[in-house]
Amino acid sequence: MSSAAEQEAVAGHQATGNGRQAAAANGVRRPAPPPMVPAWPGAATPLGARFRVGPDGVAGTNFALWAGGAEGVELCLFDEAGKESRVRLGELTHEIWHGFVPGVLPGQRYGYRVHGRWDPWTGARWNPAKLLLDPYARAVDGDFSLPPEVYGHVRDWPQQHVADTVRDDRDSAPYVPKGVVVHDDDDWADDRRPKTPWADSVIYEVHVKGFTALHPGIPEELRGTYAGLAHPAAIEHLVKLGVTAVELLPVHQFAHEDHLLRRGLGNYWGYNSIGYFAPHAAYAASGTRGGQVGEFKRMVRALHAAGIEVILDVVYNHTAEAGELGPTLSLKGIDNRGYYRLQDDPRRYADYTGCGNTLHVVQPQVLRLITDSLRYWVTEMGVDGFRFDLAAALARSMHDVDMLSPFLAVIAQDPVLRRVKLIAEPWDVGSGGYQVGAFPPLWTEWNDRYRNAVRDFWRHALPDVREMGYRLSGSSDLYAWGGRRPYASVNFVTAHDGFTLRDLVTYERKHNEANGEGNRDGTNDNRAWNCGAEGETDDEGIRALRRRQLRNLLTTLLLSTGVPMLVAGDELGRTQRGNNNAYCQDNEISWVDWGLLEDPGWRALFELTSRLIELRHRHPVLRRRAFFSGRAQTADGLRDLAWFTSRGTEMTERDWYAPAATLGMYLSGRDIPGRDERGAQILDDSFLAVLHAGEGPVRFELPGPPWAERYEVVVDTSLEEQGEAPGVEHRAGTEITMPGRAVLLLRVAG
Q1: Residues 6 or more apart from 10 whose CB is under 8 A from it?
Q2: Distance, CA of 244 to CA of 81 (rounded, Å)
Q3: DSSP, res 639
Q4: According to the model, what pLDDT value does residue 403 have?
């Protein structure tokens, strides 16, 4: 007697065969084949579609596709009416199918059909009925709507446990986007990259559409687009705020998940990539037949001209094809086994991302796809760096995370990529995936331990102040190894994923009902404090406390050593109404509300944020390039960093372990390591920052010599309007009263 598993396999094979039974089951009548177009041999490199002048001066396009293990590749060309013509790519060089097609010009839409075995039990999922997007397509025309025809298997097969084994022979071409041939002769000669040093950077996480969709100063036809972000009204806000870089949520071509489309929603954030060379077409005001490429470049140029770098949030860990029950859009149909990590049962996908699949970065062709894409965005699209979503998944060798993995090794030696900004989200969802502090030199990291400590401190939930001391001073416990510097830590309190800053002080529980998932999605670990009422309230006392908490959080972030990251709209008091997982909310829940600037209270928050960033730019002691030593450099005993209790005495070992709500941090401008561009010693003012998270006021004695003789108030977050704070002086040794829940920044006078 055979086992149940063997019976299932036999049943699957019988249902599938060589595709004839599946075709009959689907009621498919094979249409007459499209006309064939002749091709010249062409070249195997570069991969993708490249318009050029061929032999005898004939203009055309060279097409090259890596498809390891495939038995044949057809290039499919589509005219304006959608009529298909096919080109058999007969040349095969090192598993790359290629050909030059005369007369194919920029703007031509195309895709591929790849022939091979249908044998899901060994991971082979070739199906020439499915039109596939070129992984190297530099522009994409059309949307992914995900009807049953775009699935390589019969999605509605009655026995769902074997549905992925039954091949679907219906043609997907009418239902999927096409690649677009693009001509690129831009040499970027007129562009000047800002090249902001890491230590001087202030990052602004922004969604192309969400930032511009409601902006009254941007023409309506440009809102939600690359051109809208390049508009002077958008750039004016960035310049006034003082940020040095925008970190754009994913702009690679992406697709919406089926479960969202069925609920009338879509993937707003864009973490579902399918085209690693193509700017997402829906963000283009200039059309989808290649115009999106030039529009993206003009946006980059405009931001560079304003001194602002462009960092892309990139998703190379998985694709929109999901697992074995997902659609067949590109890589799955080109070489499923070559592109994706499969389990011991090759029908199933290894999933370190929570999205159904994981790219197999150990494979040379996958590594080439990713690095070719990265270099393209730097050299041909002008970007300045990348934030890698779930970067630990990219650092896995065969199974475990490995900081000597092929991906990290290739990046470290690449002459283009090692010069740009590299930010890791240093975790994935697999075993051993949490790797904060473990990435090698060249890399910076999103530091979620900073986020957690600052949130906990200001809701008075830390057992002591040890963690807060490390986070304020650059997280040396995580990054002071291997030549890494304080700017290896990207400090943030909020990100796109989670509460906005305003919601962090307004809600304690998530309110994700609008997502249609029964409020089950999104984290429950918000580390939030609503100041006494859940949600918006008319209680002016609570409203004032919330505004003060926002000032405390922003001031803490911008005074901390490391690289600060703000989320677009947090400086205005943007709310998502308690939604901490607004990935599918392409509406006012997620878009920046520019009307907030008309409210004096929120306008004051913007002005304070801008002032703090300007203060950071002006004072090198706030953006150190090396870790503090904590040791006295001169005979008077003054150290580069000192910590004080509310008694005005330096903290002892016992003080670090004792419950406390108050922390004083002294930063010496006399002991900044390094020299300026002319070789001179860097000198700056010295500062004392006092952070008090307790509910009631506390008496704080200002430290005397050698620290200071007098202090001048620079920022006082207990005040709504900061115009009242600067200029107030206190003598050293004076006992001042710190109001409950406030930050006081004092400059050493004289």
Answers
A1: 2
A2: 46
A3: B
A4: 93
